[in-house]
Amino acid sequence: GMGLAWLTRDPRNAEGWRRHAIAPDLLLRPLLLIGGWHDPHLLGVLDLARQSQAAGGQPALRIGAWSHLDWQGGLDALQLAFFRRHLHRDAAEGCPEPGSVSLQCPRSARWSVPTRLSSGVEEPGQGPPAGAFHWRLASDGLAIIRADEGRLVPFEQQTSSHGLTLVHDPWRPVPSRGGHLGPEPGLCERADLDRRADVACFQTAPMGAPIAWIGRPLLRIRMAADQPGCDLWATLSVVRRDGSVLQCCSGVRRLLGEEALTPEPRLVELQPCWIRLEAGERLRLSLAASAWPAIAVNPGDGSLPCGGSELGHRVISLDLDLATSHLWLDPLIVAN
Fold it and tell me: pLDDT band at 131, cuts 50/70/90?
């Protein structure tokens, strides 16, 4: 079956993988694209929207606070109206207009209509895009021991900072929770995970006023491991005034072979999200070297991970250079 074939095929090697190109004329036809903030296919939905726009199409886009196909009602009528208009040529009431975009806030469940889609993720090697929110990671050395010690400081602010070393124990991997890849996707509480001694946390100062941002978080950080294989799992959360921590999105960067041993700036791309912070709340970035079972545990020997911890898995020390770190929010969608 195709599932077994995927598990046994190396994703680093293009041979054997089938790529389906989209006929340009299909991108010009009426499109109703439906995604979710916690849907692992959301990046494909957004890429299809951008391709259609670039070809001159006007796709209608809906992104809700759900995971894959868990639409929680309401979209069946929207789809029916879309098919009636474009297949039956009826003046169906409730059909989305060409080019319309509607998004649902995960925290409030309210729907909003933004103004436009942006061009997407910047290319690795460039600096943070102009006008985006962006920060440096800073710590006096205790960001792994204390969840409130590490800081996200404005990028233009100069600060001295220590490096940090995450130690991954394969017999006690950091568990995944919520997000777009786990068995129970969505927003979730993670304060207990951030208190672990193998998770590094960095957070902003309290917000002076409510702020909302819709887009894709990107982290660039210089890193290297002491083994020929490592993972860096990043999550963004909201630290609420009562001390609870609401996880919003996550992403992973995997290194296999000699590249894991070389200190180089690496780009970690997180799931697109809608983050809303109230006055007094903070934005927190958490870093770990595993996220089981959402991500297979890296064995640390350069081989392709495909499951949980096994006898040959190695302890991995992952050095992070905070002095050259950048965290920024690339606005996929600009809201009103």
Answer: very low
